[in-house]
Amino acid sequence: MNTTFPRLLLDHAARRPSATALREKEYGIWQSLTWQALAEMVKSLACGLHQSGLRRGEHVIVVGANRPRLYASMLAVQSLGAIPVPLYQDAVATEYVFPINNAEVRFAVVENQEQVDKLLEIRPDCEQLAHIFFDDPRGLRNYQQEGLASLTELQDKGQQLAQQNPTFFDKEVAINQADDVAAMFFTSGTTGNPKGVVHTHRSLLDRAKAGADFDHLSENEEVLAYMPPAWIGQNIFSYAQWLCCGYVVNCPESAATVNIDLKEIGPTYYFAPPRVFEGMLTTVMIRMEDASAPKRGLFSYFMDIARRYGPARMDGQSIGLWGQLIYGLGNVLIYGPLRNNLGFSRVRVAYTAGEAIGPDLFNFYRAIGINLKQLYGSTETAVFVCLQPDNQARADTVGVPCAGVEIKVSEQGEVLVKSAGLLKGYYKNPEATAEVLTADGWYHTNDAGFIDSHGHLKIIDRVKDVGRIQGGASDGAMFAPKYVENKLKFFPHIKEVVAYGDGRDKVCVMLNIDFEAVGNWAERRNLGYAGYTDLAQKFEVYQLMLECVEKVNADLAADALLAGSQISRFLVLHKELDADDGELTRTNKVRRGFIAEKYAVLVDALYQGLAEQFIETAVKFEDGRTGSVSAHLRLMDARTFAPVERAA
């Protein structure tokens, strides 16, 4: 698209001034902001930022949840030819130091007191950080630090310039070109310092339009924006596609009210990583287990009907007269009320991405009439690489290349991508840029995969993570840790998994239980526990985990390529893996190498055949305090199976 984000804003304001652009829930009431009002807000903020000294080409960090004035601030920054850099609001203060210094940031726009406190804490390490503007003034009345001001004050300052020079804002917007840098997103930094992914207006908007055209999105869509704006997935869906299509973005009151807000809004277009869909299903199943026997029976009967007819019905296939009648009855009694309870009664298109989603989970949502699909992409590709057509949604693929995308698979099995949505480069890192971008425009995804006979892309694992078993009965067999981890995470009682096996004689895993799901399971069996650590080490919980592990092993035995990746031993960790402790990235990806070093004593114990191992681990609490958690962990063997010979 040969345009920019601010120009799209002004186009909507000119064509549809009174149409709703954003809604925000405040004190339980939804407040609407029209395109005209948003354009005026952006204008005053842009003028205020200019008055404060922001200049073209500078970077501005934006830290907070989805809030209308933070969206407006990003547009204001782009209007001046500067570059917004969204950062994760749940990051600890020290995680901001590298991106702020790397991008030489002088200006910050934050949501509330929590973010102000973090930036003030690291200011001695970021001496160039001169201005911090906040949206929510609660708790900040007595703060007198230099350069600290509210967005309201910034707007008031900007309005004075707008009155003195009415054409200033429009002239600044007109200067910007489609190939100018529009935003920078920092990667999660699984192997070192994060890298700043530089995107232009053209690259982001090209992919936003490709996704919108693929699913026939219009200005009539309703979206709930509840994931971190620093995640490019949320940014594309609630910022780039929002401006591209002109639909309504709804900002929930808080993380605690998201489920309520979801039901009130009834989005038509929805996006979430698999763990959100897993959490919803876990909640449904917990509630059903607590229901009366007749209700459980009715639910079970009609879910069997849904599994038999629902996916085929969603794919546009004929299910016959009897199928239509019995599914229709189930829709009245079970599926319709269930979709409404989940907040999906109006969803036309729902996407999941970021991790693989389990077949049972995927099919559950499609069976009850929710058009859940998968997509494939990354920060570097501006998200949209592959999408699933409505009638070709499958759990084991990530779809077909969308408009403007070329894909090829190298001799080493790596997926390469070419499209107009590729990054311009990594900021101040030409070496890393050269590693992923070829001279003829191909991007190395570092994902191992292949195109199947239907033209769909299948992803196996990260290229660097695919290894080989060395020694033992599976000597030389392929080992794909992420594939194994995801198969275990498909079980509702398992929240996180870390698998090891490359260069070793067998596969061993460390598990995190889902505390809510396993806690409910334990309570129904009158199994008492004092907290996560106590529950995780119960013998009964280990037996539950053993069942899951052996089911995965039986499934892997039927896979000729990965039969050697069956799990020989496992343990349940004494604490949940946490981004604050460095074990996960801010997008909840496992930092496998870091965990191997941190828990080396546990990895060694698994491979040495020990039955028990003591561990003490330092942890960081939300309020910044530190402490430790210790436990004697069980280590358990799991049964493996002979590879299944498939008939020719």
From the structure above, extract its key features.
GMP Synthetase, Chain A, domain 3, 648 residues, 3 domains, five-stranded mixed β-sheet, alpha/beta, single chain, 29 strands, Rossmann fold
Any overview of this molecule?
By secondary structure, this protein is α/β, with parallel strands linked by helices. It has three domains: 5-204 and 229-241, 3-Layer(aba) Sandwich (Rossmann fold); 274-463, ANL, N-terminal domain (Rossmann fold); 466-637, GMP Synthetase, Chain A, domain 3 (2-Layer Sandwich). It is built from 21 helices and 29 strands. It is globular and about 80 Å long. The mean pLDDT is 93.
Gyration radius over CA: 26 Å
Structural shape: globular
CATH superfamily membership of the largest domain, which one? ANL, N-terminal domain
User: Strand pairing plus helix content: what structural class?
Assistant: alpha/beta
Share in β-strands: 15-25%
CATH structural architecture of the largest domain: 3-Layer(aba) Sandwich
Distance between the termini: 50 Å
Q: What is the CATH fold-level name of the largest domain?
A: Rossmann fold
Largest sheet: 5 strands, parallel
